């Protein structure tokens, strides 16, 4: 891995249904600290939630330059927008520029399609600041989540 702050190389490849278990493990690694902070860490509930929303046809594996799986991101159509979900990196890949580089690529795709991007983050999660730095704004909230949106930039 490159030093912290250096933009890391990565590749995105299509996921398959068979990737569910290893992506679920990455989700647990990435989400556990935030969920524990609010007293909501429950592996069984996390599995059920991930299973219910896992769309392999819209999910991409994130691979490092050596071809090792370091994360995933789901990005696909929903209700006239693009839904960004399941954007997880293993802890050792976080803070190294990979997430920002991937998000910039997805923003470009959204701009080309002229569709807004919607997502939700856990209340109190550091992810909120990450997305706000990339132009997302809060649209509403519920007991546990904040809902954010970014409108496409005009060409």
The gist of it:
It is built from four helices and seven strands. With 155 residues, the chain is of the alpha+beta class.
Topology at a glance:
Blueprint (H helix, E strand, L loop, with lengths): L10 E4 L5 H18 L5 H11 L5 E5 L5 E10 L2 E9 L8 H16 L3 E6 L4 H7 L3 E5 L3 E6 L5
Parallel strand pairs: 4-5
Antiparallel strand pairs: 1-2, 2-3, 3-4, 5-7, 6-7
Helix pairs in contact: 1-2
Task: Explain what this protein looks like in three dimensions.
Pfam families: Acetyltransf_7 (PF13508). GO terms for molecular function: acyltransferase activity, transferring groups other than amino-acyl groups. The protein has 155 residues and is α+β, with helices and mostly antiparallel strands. The protein has helices at residues 20-37, 43-53, 98-113, 127-133; strands at residues 11-14, 59-63, 69-78, 81-89, 117-122, 137-141, 145-150. The protein has a seven-stranded mixed beta sheet, sandwiched between helices. Strand 6 and strand 7 form a beta hairpin. The longest helix has 18 residues, at 20-37.
């Amino acid at each position: 891995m490159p030093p912290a702050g250096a933009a890391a190389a990565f590749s995105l490849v299509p996921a398959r249904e068979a990737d569910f278990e290893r992506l679920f493990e990455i989700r647990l690694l990435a989400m556990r600290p935030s969920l524990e902070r609010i007293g909501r860490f429950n592996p069984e509930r996390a599995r059920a939630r991930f299973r219910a929303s896992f769309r392999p046809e819209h999910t991409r594996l994130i691979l490092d330059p050596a071809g090792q799986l370091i994360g995933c991101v789901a990005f696909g159509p929903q209700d006239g927008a693009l839904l960004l979900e399941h954007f997880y990196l293993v802890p050792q890949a976080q803070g190294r520029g990979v997430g920002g580089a991937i998000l910039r690529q997805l923003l470009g795709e959204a701009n080309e399609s002229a569709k807004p991007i919607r997502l939700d983050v856990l209340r109190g999660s550091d992810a909120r600041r990450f997305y706000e730095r990339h132009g997302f704004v809060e649209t509403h909230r519920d007991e546990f989540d904040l809902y954010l949106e970014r409108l496409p930039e005009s060409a």
